[in-house]
Every structure is written in C-alpha cells, then in structure tokens.
Amino acid sequence: MKRKSPSITSKLWSVSAILAILILWQLSVSLGLVEGFMLPSPVQVAGAFIKEFPALMENARITLAEAGMGLVLGIATGFGAAVLMDRFDKAFKAFYPIIVLTQTVPAVAIAPLLVLWFGYEMTPKVILIVITTFFPITVGLLTGFRAADPDAVNLLKAMGAGRFQIFCYIKLPGAMGQFFSSLKISASYAVVGAVISEWLGGFGGLGVYMTRVKKAFSFDKMFAVIFLISAISLILMWAVELLQKKCMPWDTGQTHK
C-alpha cells in the first residue's frame, strides 16, 4: 500500500481547515449568532462576487498594472542597492541604515504625501509599491551575496577570475534562493501596496472599489474584494515558486517538493 506524499497530506489538511472555517462561518450567520448585515455569510459573499465579477475584473486589471510596474521597479532598485552595498563596504555602512529607516514609516502615512506631490494618477501608487517591495529584495540578495563560500571565491581568484566573474559564477547563483524567497514577499506586498494607495485617491482599482462599497455599507461586496485580493496574492506567490523551479533546476529541495 502506497503512502500519501507529505505535500498531498499537507494540502488536504489546509483544505479541510478552510472548509471547516467556512462551514462554521455559514452556520453562525444562518443561526443568527452574528447579524448578516455585519458579517455576510460565505453564500452571500459568493453571490456578490458573481454579480460584481465584471466590475471586479476591470478594477483588478488596474491594480495589477500598478502592482506589476511597481514590483519590476522595486526588484531593479533592490538588486542595484544589494550589488552596490556588497561591492562597497562604505556604501553598506552609509545606506543600509537609511534603507531600514524607510521601512519604519507606515505605508498609510506615506501614501497621502505621495498623492499630494504627484496627484491621483499611477505615479504615486507605483512609488509607494517600490518603497514597500524593494526592501525584501535588497536584504535577501545582500544576505545571499555575503554568504558566498569563501573557499569557492578564493579558488576562482587563484584561477585568475575577476570580480564580475566571481559575481556571476559564485555570488549570484548562491543568492537565488534568498532572492526568490524575498520575491514571494514582495509580490504580495505589491498588491497590498497598490490597494492601500488606491484608498487615498484614484480613478479605478480594487482599493477605489473597496472605498465605494464601504460607503454604501455593502459588506458582502467588501468581503468579495478581500477574497479576490487574497487570491491574487496567492496566485502571484505560486507563480514565483514555478519561476524558481525553472530558474533553479539544481535546487533539489524545490524540484522534489
């Protein structure tokens, strides 16, 4: 008799837990333990999602465009900062505290300033997403670069390799694991950052849609948006895992997961 793989077992437990929560949620509303207008049941949320599907997809397209552009720029910024601080120790001492400082200011506090400075178009939203996504990339890559095997580095130096060759053959491949782990975090941050920036002003997007339905006290539509945002974040993280398997075929821990 074949044993179930750990991955299948863990997924079954996860699905079972989600189903149990949904059933308890539905029963608590159906039995009147919680007022339906305050906490709509899963059936009501599903109905609102189906009814508002065209509007949700149109607003999701805008949010994804903002998140995608901000994430790409955040990756580029994080990669450049990590390479610079790894190459120059003085740059690390000068800029790393500032980079950490940028993450101590809440995104909700920065967003109104960006809207005042850059208006209600896409620019302030992309800037906020870059601020929230570049930090995990920077820290992950920098940690990977500095964890390079010194024996391997010395071996390449003895063979006449330069800094660029050491970077390409030792440091960059060794930091790929940390990069993709950071990218999963940044991908989810990108969507959340886009929604937060849309709350404070804009002409479209899931954040703008949430603000409208909140003012109308349509909590079923509000929950439908929340579930859609969660689903988008999970899909992006799953896409990063697939990309990691393609880019890191030597990582047996990933390929046999």
From TrEMBL:
Protein name: Hydroxymethylpyrimidine ABC transporter permease
One BP term from GO: transmembrane transport
Segments traversing the membrane: 12-34, 62-84, 96-120, 126-145, 166-183, 189-210, 222-240
Main location: membrane
Gene3D superfamilies attached to this UniProt entry: MetI-like
Residue ranges annotated for the ABC transmembrane type-1 domain, each copy included: 56-244
Bilayer disposition of the protein: Multi-pass membrane protein
Keywords from the UniProt entry: Cell membrane, Membrane, Transmembrane, Transmembrane helix, Transport
Species of the source: Enterocloster bolteae 90A9
Domain of life: Bacteria
Taxonomic path: Bacteria, Bacillati, Bacillota, Clostridia, Lachnospirales
Family (UniProt): Belongs to the binding-protein-dependent transport system permease family.
Any one of the GO CC terms: plasma membrane
Localization per record: Cell membrane
